């Protein structure tokens, strides 16, 4: 493309210089018309058609199904977070939120959906963006080639906190990925310290379980993110806060300040000690 651009640039500049130097009347009207038709219509049509074909060619590979047996991950864009479901060959899927791990060098197929409005799934370092449209399942296939942590974002304005809807993708060696997936599949470990126990009791007593699931406890809500291993995530609140007890306290007590318009009520009315216990309990869910 750079080569082609240089050739066209030189041709245009040469013509411009020629136009300045030519004496008036040195070209017939017929010649001038050929130049306008050729340079103004035919050449651009050929060049732009070639560029269009070149630009569209890689798209079918991105949208085609990944090879049989590759990893399939359903991602649902919600207001304003990401529901992630690993559809592993076993019957039981692995559910989490706002974080995706991938084995390096292996093809993966994302199935993108949305229950509410149009979102757009975009991991700039790994692949093109694809819209998540209510009532449809769009596909995106890619093969990550580099180990590392990459940020993803919603690329379609979807409401008040559209800009606070991010996620992280961790690309790692297959062995590390398998260990991670096994841990994510497991149910939550019971709380071990008195403070964490108090946190769990508070979680179950205050209705958090109506919206959140913590597998291995009676909490089985599906309105909000699955919190079974929330303590293992790189961030909380869809990429906006660090995974630290202090951030959990802030999120639980002043949810709407952390994320305007959020579909979770703030629980600032709970006793401070309860909120701190909740934070310690959740942060410990590795
Ligand atoms: Cu969105």
What are its keywords?
3 domains, 5-stranded mixed beta sheet, alpha+beta, 12 strands, 36% helix, single chain, 8 helices, Immunoglobulin-like
List the bound ligands: copper (II) ion
Overall pLDDT metric: 94
* Element-by-element helix/strand order: HHHEEEEEEEEEEHHEEHHH
The CATH C-level name of the largest domain is Mainly Beta
Estimated share of beta-strand residues: 15-25%
Unreliable stretches (pLDDT < 50, length at least 5) are: none
The Rg value, from CA coordinates, equals: 27 Å
Count up the domains.
3
* Gross CATH architecture of the largest domain: Sandwich
Major β-sheet profile: 5 strands, mixed
Helix segment count? 8
Helicity range: 25-40%
- Tell me how many strands there are: 12
Instruction: Specify the CATH homologous superfamily of the largest domain.
Output: Cupredoxins -  blue copper proteins
Strand order of the largest sheet: 3-2-1-5-8
**Global shape:** elongated
CATH topology title of the largest domain: Immunoglobulin-like
Describe this structure in words.
The protein is an alpha+beta fold and 286 residues long. The protein folds into three domains: 2-57; 67-185, Sandwich (Immunoglobulin-like); 194-283, Sandwich (Immunoglobulin-like). It is built from eight helices and twelve strands. The protein has helices at 2-21, 29-56, 59-63, 174-185, 194-205, 245-253, 255-258, 272-283, and strands at 71-78, 81-86, 94-97, 99-103, 108-113, 119-122, 130-132, 138-142, 148-154, 166-172, 235-236, 241-242. The strands form three sheets. Strands 3-2-1-5-8 form a five-stranded mixed sheet. A five-stranded mixed sheet has the order 4-10-9-6-7, covered by helices on one side. It has a two-stranded antiparallel ribbon with strand order 11-12. A hairpin with a 2-residue loop joins strand 1 and strand 2. The radius of gyration is 27 Å and the shape is elongated. Residues 77, 119, 154, 158, 162, 165 line the site of copper (II) ion.
